[in-house]
Amino acid sequence: MDKERIARAVREILLAVGEDPDREGLQETPERVAKMYAEVFDGLNRDPKVHTEKTFAESASEFVLVKDIPFNSTCEHHLLPVIGQAHVAYIPNGGQVIGLSKLARIVEDYALRPQLQERLTNQVADILTNELGALGVFVVIEAEHMCMTIRGIKKPGSKTVTYASRGIYEDPTKRQEVLNMIRL
Known about the structure:
The chain is α+β, with helices and mostly antiparallel strands. It has six helices and seven strands, in the order ααββββαβαβαβα. The chain has helices spanning 3-16, 29-40, 100-111, 117-132, 146-149, 172-183; strands at residues 56-57, 64-75, 81-91, 96-97, 114-115, 136-145, 160-167. The chain has a five-stranded mixed β-sheet, with helices on both faces. Strands 1-4 form a two-stranded antiparallel ribbon. Strand 2 (64-75) and strand 3 (81-91) form a beta hairpin. The radius of gyration is 20 Å and the shape is elongated. It starts with a helix and ends with a helix.
């Protein structure tokens, strides 16, 4: 990530909005913003597939669900924060499971990049389907988008909910089973 280039761009933005980037309170702002962007876009430097490489053989044949995984992302349309939680369920194929923390890491790796919630939801579902060969995957993401909260329509507290289903979770009855567990 080119932090110097980001800092120069932030300085230009400050000038463009009529601020003095040399005044005391703003002197270090371009560098702080550059450092922040390196952090919030760190997912661009990560390959989420790494979290699916190590599996464990278990006699698991029912779904595994990790719910309420907190995440933050950045709306690619406005470069404003998206803050939410993900619920990730999968049915292992042949008893092959990954560590529970790996589900949260996959969400984080995809979230830490300029993103759309719809894409994020599908990326998490697709990696579990494609890399683990999961028999079923169901991902629900709920998030508040600051682009809807602090600008435009200005509706704080509104949440966007997206879901992706793969495999046996394309069956509404199976999907309802996981939704019931998410609501507990």
